[in-house]
Each structure stands twice: as structure tokens, then as C-alpha cells.
């Protein structure tokens, strides 16, 4: 059930649950704009389907009736600042196409307020939904990782930190022929929009600020095992948390990266400014997930303290001042810093690589050989360092053995196949 507290009479009512859609309680003043299939935005963008949603926006597939091509429309919550488009325009570079360029910006007035919107080229899917319970071929993992590293290197070279690197924000580009599909052909190939009626638990009519139907996101992707090198062109998305550390201060307490990908200084140095090194930590975790079947740190139903205990198990002791500052350490470790008897102890980084990457790949006959495994683990060790000032810079990541000998050469071969 969803609770909506924006009834004009001050009453509370609930929506019947619909799995896989945005939070329906956010259809209220200051929240989402109600959109339906067939709506035309800005007099030219006809809504064809939904691509996704987040806490502060919904994203729709639309047909640009003026230019006769498909675009993605990101519609923000009411009255929210569209800082993201300013950063994307600052990063815009025709020679670096892994950063989305806003095509059009406009505002929508609706029952919930004024909503900032922008359009961009649509993407096929994100790496999280592609890789869930599947493995990419070895050459694809290298090319995807190399492409992601180059994207972060470019962002850092322009003076920005992404601030929210994880697989849901790494998108795969659509095949070039997608724009040649008519709407009817698109529906025939990918399916009609999945639409579910929105109803209140009390059976009363919906308010005008809520859509009558919810739309489940369209899936345009394919399985990870079906990916080839031509599918490894990425778009790094969601720059809502991006910032320029040389021009503005973003403290650790203001870090909104998901818990399992969040750099530890956000927890232990909440008043200290974040910098480029925060991206390095999250980048390492994203690369690990691209390579294997499971993340290096469990990200399901865990607390911040459980994440810290996992990090210590896998990577070794916290810096002493952080350790003393961590009041909850006695839940997981004894006075000598050893794991408490009876709790599950996460494996060290070498065994973690075996457990979450190699054993699944071995079953499919596509494991990393000893030399490459050693190079990967060495890179991960130097990126996943607790002290941010001791982590590799992105330029040092680019110069690491695994990137130089495996990731970038694979990416070069990828470009030669296009």
C-alpha cells in the first residue's frame, strides 16, 4: 500500500500496491507529474512507454514528432532544481559520447507544480538489470570496464565528481537501427506498454494530481551472456549528485550513493569534503560487479554497521581513529579486533574474487586466468583503500596493469569491430 498525505481535506488514504512502479504517494504537490501513454509534452513529444523512475524523476520513451526520432524525457519532481543539465552541458563533448547530452530543456506545469524536464537519446538498459543472475563474456567485461574507466577519467579531467557510480546508472546504448522502427513495430518487437489501474484502498475516486494508470518500465535489453563487443558502448547517467570539488564543498554526510557502494569516509569523516577519491571507491565496486555474479559487499537488507564489518573482513583493519570512533564495533569484533565467534565472516579479497566471480565463470568455462586474476585483485586492493588520500587516482587506474594489458586493448578491439 502507498500512503498519500496530500488530500486537500488533510485526510490520509492509501493506494493498492503495484509492484515495479514509482512511489505512488509521490503524486502530490511537490512530487511527480502525472503522465499517461499518448500524452504529448511540449507540443511535440508523444509518450510511447516508460523507461524508468527514481526518487526524484520519471523517465519516458517518447517520439519526437518534429524530428521523427525516439528520445527519452526525464521529468523531475515539482520545483526541483535541474542542476543535472548544467553539469551535462559543461561535460558535453562530441568526442566523448559516454556522457548524455541534453537535447532540449523545458518545464511542465501540472497539478503538482512546475516540473523541470529535459530530453536525451534513449538507452537500451542499465547494467544492473542486464547482469542480474547472469555473466558477461570475458571480452565484454573488459570492454565495459575500460569504457567506464575512461568515462570517469573524462569527468575528473573536467573537474567533476560523478558522486553516484553504480550499475543502475551505467546504461547501454541502443542499436543504431532503433530509430527506424515505427511505433507499431516497436510494440511488436518489445511489447505493448504494461499498464495497471491505480486504485485507492477506500474505493473512492483518485484526485486529479494522480494518474489513473501506472506504467511498468519497458525493458529494451537482452541477457548479459548475449552481449557482444558491439553492445559495450555505455552512457553514464544520473548526474544529480555530481559536483565540482575544486569549486564547491560536498561533505561526507551529504553523500547519497547507495550504502554498499558508498565510500567509507562518508561514514567516518561526515564533516570532511568529498573529492575525486570517492568515485574511485564506487568505481571499483562497479567493476567488480561487471566482472562477476555478485557484488563484493552484500547490498541487500544490511545496515551501515554491517557494511563496515564486511569491509573490514574483506579488506583488513580500519584506520585506528575510525576504529575507535566506530561505537558499534563490539557487535562484530572482540576487544582484539577479531571477528566475534558465531557470526559469518566475509572472505578476504582473494577468496571473495573466487567466490563471487571465478566459481560462477568456471562452471561456464569462462574464468579469468591466473595472470589476469592477479592483476585485477591488485587493482581492486589499490582502489578499495579506506583512507581516500591513499587510493589510486583515475590516472593511476588508467596506468594499472589490468587496464593497460586487458581492459583498454579489448576496448580498442571493440572500436575496430564497429
Automatic annotation (TrEMBL):
Binding positions for ATP per the UniProt entry: 74
The UniProt keywords, alphabetically, are: ATP-binding, Kinase, Nucleotide-binding, Serine/threonine-protein kinase, Transferase
Top EC group: transferase
**Classification via PANTHER family:** PROTEIN KINASE DOMAIN-CONTAINING PROTEIN-RELATED
The scientific name of the source species is Aspergillus sclerotioniger CBS 115572
Catalyzes what?
L-threonyl-[protein] + ATP = O-phospho-L-threonyl-[protein] + ADP + H(+); L-seryl-[protein] + ATP = O-phospho-L-seryl-[protein] + ADP + H(+)
For the biological process aspect of GO, one term held by this record is: regulation of mRNA processing
Question: What are the GO cellular component annotations?
Answer: cytoplasm; nucleus
Protein's name according to its UniProt entry: non-specific serine/threonine protein kinase
EC number annotated for this UniProt entry: 2.7.11.1
| A single MF term (Gene Ontology) | ATP binding
